[in-house]
Amino acid sequence: MNIEASIVPGESAAGIQLGSRIEEILKEQETHFLSEEIVHPLLPSPTTLRRYRSAMVDLWVREGIVDQIMVHDGYRGKLMDKIGLGSTIADIEMQIDAWEEDEEDNLVIRDLPGVGFEIEGYFPDLKDPAFRHAPIKDIYVFQANKELSSLTEFERTSATT
Fold first, then answer.
1. Which of 5, 66, 80, 104 has the smallest CB count inside 10 Å?
2. Bridge-partner residues for 7, per DSSP?
3. Contacting residues for 92 by C-beta, under 8 A, at least 6 apart
4. Is domain 12-150 in CATH 2.60.460.10, yes or no?
């Protein structure tokens, strides 16, 4: 795993490609991942979704394949060599494009599919002036033809199983 690798929307982060087999990644990594099964009451029970957590990179794995990557806590790679953890929505607006909230309330960059982000703090109103200057705490990479996993919010707010 490379914590300085570029973040490529819809493709990769940390040098890990979406669509990779988790068993191959685990063999190649010196990094220790904690694994947990994700149980969601709205998913049919045969769905196997696991989250592999490390100090700076988390992987969501469906049926042995990496489906989503999240970078956090000190990851140093950048999106388009411009935006990384600690950047702000104002930085995104100035350096890349406008941001928006998708149908599932995820923050994404307009016309840049396959990447989403979360900021530090709670802002019930996205028009709050401080919102634009809150630092990015997590960046997600997912397949460009999919939305950011609808499980993400559930996983963040629920206890591990």
1. 104
2. 79
3. 83, 99, 109
4. yes
